[in-house]
Amino acid sequence: QVQLQQWGAGLLKSAETLSLTCAVYGGTFGGYYWAWIRQAPGKGLEWLGEINHSGTTYFNPSLKSRVIISVDASKAQFSLKLNSVTVADTAVYYCARLLLGATTPPLFHYFALDVWGQGTTVTIS
Amino acid sequence: SSELTQDPAVSVAPGQTVRITCQGDSLTSYHATWYQQKKGQAPLLVIYGKNNRPSGIPPRFSGSRSGNTASLTITGAQAEDEADYYCNSRDSSGDQLIFGGGTKLTVL
């Protein structure tokens, strides 16, 4: 049973750097992408980016200049840094495992966040 | 980039069938994935791929697609199904994960 446990500072001031880490327990780390998603109060889900065990990354273009996602495969952990935070970055931040697959015919891919961390509430003042 | 559009709110009487839709051009290339989120909880995967349910998801949840519209159907809705439902897929470039705005399901 794969579990994700995340941690990091929950209260920041504007212009500081948000830093969160997510550890993967009970499953294979390689062969998956690992994602960060956030949810502002009363709002929907927003994908921030993803990384695989070898460090290949994809980012939300709206945040790309401020986001760093890194991986430590030896510890089965991945991390999020968001620079120059503002009040608009106040949200619950989740880490999640991204399951990739495909069905045929015709060839259709799917991207499913199948395991989620518990979420970290980050407040920017 | 692409967008996924969901109705903001849908309601259903207990025991009836409800369909929640997700519309977007990327759904002609990628499957929609569906999540259930109850208040104060992390989202829960309910449908992925063509129509796959993770272990523990009741069979009353099913998924389908027609053209650029994906649907999540709950056949015989229960009070515990009241939640926000989100769809997601890859965008048309294949580089970004995108979410619909969410649908609030009320079971009344």
What does the model show?
The complex is a heterodimer of chains A (125) and B (108). In chain A, 0% of the residues lie in helices and 58% in strands. Chain A is an all-beta fold. In chain A, strands 2, 4, 5, 6, 9, 10 and 11 form a seven-stranded mixed β-sheet that branches. In chain A, strand 7 and strand 8 form a beta hairpin. The radius of gyration of chain A is 15 Å and the shape is globular. In chain A, 38% of the residues are buried. The model of chain A has no long low-confidence stretch (mean pLDDT 96). Chain B has 108 residues and is an all-beta fold. Chain B is 0% helix and 45% strand. The mean pLDDT of chain B is 96. At the A-B interface, strand 5, strand 9 and strand 10 of A face strand 4, strand 8 and strand 9 of B.
Q: Nutshell version of this structure?
A:
The complex is a heterodimer of chains A (125) and B (108). With 125 residues, chain A is an all-beta fold.
Oligomer: heterodimer
Head-to-tail CA distance between termini of chain B:
37 Å
Helix content of chain A: under 10%
- Tell me the fraction of residues in β-strands of chain A, as a range: over 45%
Task: Compute the CA-based radius of gyration of chain A.
Answer: 15 Å
Secondary structure class of chain A reads mainly beta
Total DSSP helices of chain B? 0
User: Order of SSEs of chain B, N→C?
Assistant: EEEEEEEEEE
Mean pLDDT of chain B: 96
